[in-house]
Amino acid sequence: MVEAGAWWTVLAGPALLLGLAVLAVAGDAVLDARDAGRTVTLTAVVRPFLGVPRALVAQPRRLPAADVLLWRAGVITVPVAAVLSTLVIPFGNRMAADLSVGVVWFNAMEVLTWAGLWLAGWGPNAAFSLIGGYRFLAQGLAYELPLMFALISAATGAQSLRVGDIAAAQAGLWYVVWMPVAFVAYLAGVLAFSFLGPFAYPVGRDLSGGVLSETSGVDRLLLQAGRWLWLTSGAAMAVPLFLGGGAGPGLPAWAWSLIKTLVVLGALVWALRRLPVIRADRYVEFAWVVLIPLSVVQTLVPALVDLNR
Amino acid sequence: MVGPLDTVLLVALGVLALVFGALVFTLNSMARVTFALLAALVCVGGITAVLGLPYLGVVIVLMMVMEMVIMAVFMIAYMMNPAGLMPMSMLHNKRGALAISGVVFAALVAGIFAVPWPARTGIRPRDTTFQVGRSLMGDQMLTMVTLGFVLLATMVGATVLATRRGRYDRFGDDLDRRPADDPAGGGVGR
């Protein structure tokens, strides 16, 4: 039975999220080193973290006529929304807040990233940064609806919006088996709302960093952390939604949750390095012409199964 | 029942919603105005959730964030000074607007006291989401289906009217030109 944990889970959840996100960044660094032909040493693993202390003490960049209030609000929103989204994700049999509308909560927090990234793009009063913010919205219009239908598929299958109920409803068969389209659409959505890999369009190199181009110091650190925190949160949410939650033989529930989350996270880190960046206009077309019809049909499957129950 | 903590939350969120609502008309940047309005609407979502309708509350937050961010794009695009470099004001037709808003506010407040509120019959359900779905999709299914089609038709119609290039531009006068003549190459089916 999945239920809300003690008060300290509110602190343990974000700590766990941060730990897993650090692992993801380290994994990415290892793959970086391997692809570059360097030997994979401890230095290669900690390389991305060497910049953290420097970013913490760096003097912030000042720009003429920047809207500092909105800029800061946007930069802070991205990682904070990622942390808040994990409140409803069960780890084993415990979660920080057992909301009756957990799936909608997760979705609402994810959508906050839209506001956060647009504000982060608007704030500095710089062209490339602004275009980056707009790019994320264009991308959002493409990835959001398939992602929503994927969430609706899982919720329809369990006839509940409570994340714990969805995990429990997969006792017989994991949703990934009979809702593969929803699973793929969900994972694509995870990469998109963490704007990594093929969806790094808002921070593209062709824009000299886009949303990230004018950020420095702690601001840059927060935005970058937000990306990896979102990737980790999305991977963790995939476990109760599609992979049966903490269910599994032999090991305790928390261990299964951890193993499954690490597998999904590892797969995502591997995949985001394999795929080229896709332009938002192309992905919009693919999403609306191919993904959305497929997702609607996918949502119909659990609905029909429910009706025959 | 509404407990003391809920009352405190309701008052705090209500005051915040009003403050952000007032900021909408006092700030002088379109981006700030849009996000002040968003903050006010998020407070309204919080109020709805505290009042015992968590689904509607969270959905209000979800939809309002998406809607206001998209609206920010359009509001800034349609502004007289698109770069937002000059201060702007949300106040237009000040006297008329003041009269209309004053009358509407007075009517709504009068309504609070004039309406004979019904007493609760039966006990409050534990999970209100199911009841909301029932009342929307049960007796009102025909309304919802009609509304859905009207909305979809409006969206498709507006998009068609706004699109400069139609199918005759893409496929030729006899709709037989393949591949389609699109300004951007690639994409699905090409």
Brief description of this entry?
The complex is a heterodimer of chains A (309) and B (190). Chain A has twelve helices and two strands; from the N terminus they run βααααβαααααααα.
Key features of this structure:
heterodimer; A: 309 residues; mainly alpha; two-stranded parallel ribbon; 2 strands; B: 190 residues; 2 domains
Shape of chain B: extended
Could you give the order of the helices and strands of chain A? EHHHHEHHHHHHHH
Please give the count of helices of chain A: 12
The structural domain count of chain B equals: 2
Summarize model confidence as the mean pLDDT of chain A: 92
Q: Give start-end ranges of low-pLDDT stretches of chain A.
A: none
Termini separation of chain B: 60 Å
Strands of the biggest beta sheet of chain A: in what spatial order?
Answer: 1-2
Residue fraction in strands of chain B: under 5%
Alpha-carbon distance between the two ends of chain A: 23 Å
* Major β-sheet profile of chain A: 2 strands, parallel
Number of domains of chain A: 1
The total of beta strands of chain B comes to 0
Kindly provide the radius of gyration of chain A, computed on alpha-carbon positions and rounded to a whole number of angstroms.
Answer: 19 Å
Radius of gyration of chain B: 23 Å
Structure, described:
The complex is a heterodimer of chains A (309) and B (190). With 309 residues, chain A is mostly helical. Chain A has one domain. Chain A contains twelve helices and two strands. Chain A has helices spanning 9-35, 42-46, 51-57, 68-85, 102-122, 127-158, 163-168, 175-178, 180-193, 217-242, 253-274, 280-307, and strands spanning 3-4, 94-95. Chain A has a two-stranded parallel sheet. In chain A, helix 9 runs antiparallel to helix 10 (217-242). The longest helix of chain A is centred in the middle third of the chain and has 32 residues, at 127-158. Chain A is globular. Chain B has 190 residues and is an all-alpha fold. Chain B folds into two domains: 1-90; 140-183, no CATH class. Chain B is 67% helix and 0% strand. Chain B has helices at 4-26, 30-50, 54-78, 94-114, 128-137, 141-162, 167-171. Chain A binds chain B through residues 65, 67, 69-70, 73, 99-101, 104-105, 107-108, 111-112, 114-115, 118-119, 122, 134, 137, 140, 144, 161, 281-282, 285-286, 289-290, and chain B through 29, 31-32, 35, 38, 54-55, 58-59, 61-62, 65-66, 68-70, 72-73, 85, 127, 129, 184, 186-189.
